[in-house]
Amino acid sequence: MQTERAVKSLWMLNHYAQPPDLPGGTRHYDLACELIRLGYDVTIFASAYNHALRQKVRLSAGEPWALEEVQGVRFVWLPSFAHQTNNWRRMANMLDYSWRAYALGRRIPQLEPRVPAPHIVMGCAVHLFAVLAGYHLSRHYDAHFVMEVRDLWPQTFLDMGLWREGQLQVRFFRWLEQFLLERAERIVILSPQTREYLAGYSSEWAKKSMYIPNGTQVARFDRAGEGQSGKPPLHGIYLGAMGVTNGLELVLQAIRLANHSQPGLTRWTLVGDGPEKPRLQQMAVDLGLDNVRFSDPVPRSLVPDILARADMLVLVQREVLYGSSNKLFDYMAAGKPILFAVHAQHNNLVEEAQCGVSALPDSAEDLADKLLFLTRMPGEERTAMGQRGRAYAREHHDYSVLAQELARELGRLDANTA
Question: What are phi and psi for residue 144, nearest 5 degrees?
């Protein structure tokens, strides 16, 4: 379908995209802010059901959709089926969002003149149904189709041991993933290892991939060094999701071991929400961790203030080989030393940037040893670690840098079809 459109109109379909005043990921908002400065017009189609808060935001009762502009970034808010846990209701939530994004996307340039028809449609694979909706919208508008690969369906679930080869859902999602990868003109990947995964199926898929990892806005953290005491008990903070892959049970076990070795050395605040939070709270009680408290998720705009209160930050990632951590780059931008344990060694930027200490990903004992090592380190060394991380984030992972790379790659789409 040929429709009048802005020369560089980009639509992003990301079910979970958020502006900075809400908890959740702001990757696409941050990229969009920078792309607008580079001449793009950006519209993000997002669900009005906030995954972190487990409640509807931005839409009034009965409102079919809403348009909001945040710092020049246009959000189209869509209702979607409510859910509280990772059960069938969450799958219904995904399908509901994707159908509404496609159905409204076909009509919105006629309904709302502020939304131009797309030149490029990017479907973002937190789940594949959003990407499928993006693919069909790109065909409707005769637009370029770009697929962003975040979670791998079904490989991530196989790696986590949640699914098994041969199951019906594994066969279905593998077919759907390959259907979309074959039709994407370019594939955005967040991890270098994803390119190897793609090459295992097709060298052409690997060739059309572009590496745009997660990032941060370093300038938001200009005051994050304030509030660091450097005196026992040192304040450790975790900020992010509380799910199976986040490894927080390992963190609690390590804190118990460190408390036994040297009581009163640290205190901890775990900020966020997720399906594992009630179990983790009970685990902290059972382990007698009176130096650990849990806090509710906060809007992205408050993340710098929260991290400013820390002497050190902790990040553990379990059994996920292809991802790119959101919180790692915020940690780096905050200029704090990082206690780090991951399975995916390509993600071990803490060692590369020399901005913290790394532990074995499945060992509470090693994590506790590294925790004690970090806390016993002279304060000046911890400060130097944090500043190295901040400098690395500014050079390699600021969204101003990543958006320029994305814009260069998107600019080649027309050249390739000329």
Answer: -70, 145
C-beta pairs of 409-415 under 8 Å, 24+ apart in sequence:
409/186, 409/210, 409/212, 410/10, 410/120, 410/144, 410/146, 410/186, 413/120, 413/144, 413/146, 413/185, 413/186, 414/144
Cβ atoms of 198 and 312 closer than 8 Å: no
Strands (E), 150-265: 186-189, 209-211, 234-239
CB atoms near residue 179 (< 10 Å): 13
Residues in the chain: 418
Per-residue pLDDT, 355: 97
Strands 266-271, 312-317: pairing is unpaired
pLDDT digits (tens, 9 = 90+) for 295-319: 999 998 899 999 999 999 999 987 6
Classify burial at 84, counting beta carbons within 10 Å of its beta carbon; exposed 0-12, middle 13-18, buried 19 or more. Answer: exposed
Give the separation between CA 42 and CA 29, rounded to whole angstroms.
9
Nearest CA-CA partner of 31 in 270, 326, 381: 326
**pLDDT tens digit sequence for 243-277:** 888 899 999 999 999 999 999 999 999 999 988 99
DSSP state of 69: E
DSSP, collapsed to helix, strand or coil, labels residue 309 as coil
CA distance 32 to 407: 10
Rounded Cα–Cα distance for residues 59 and 63 (Å)? 6
Residue 126 contacts residue 97 (beta carbons within 8 Å): no
**Which of left, alpha, beta for 228 (phi over 0: left; psi -120 to 50: alpha)?**
beta
Q: Give the model's pLDDT for residue 281.
A: 98
225-231: average pLDDT: 62
pLDDT at residue 322, as a whole number: 63
Q: 101: part of which helix (H) or strand (E)?
A: helix 88-111
Question: What is the pTM for the complete model shown?
Answer: 0.88
Q: Is 415 helix (H, G, I), strand (E, B) or coil?
A: helix
If DSSP codes are grouped into helix, strand and coil, which group holds residue 213? coil
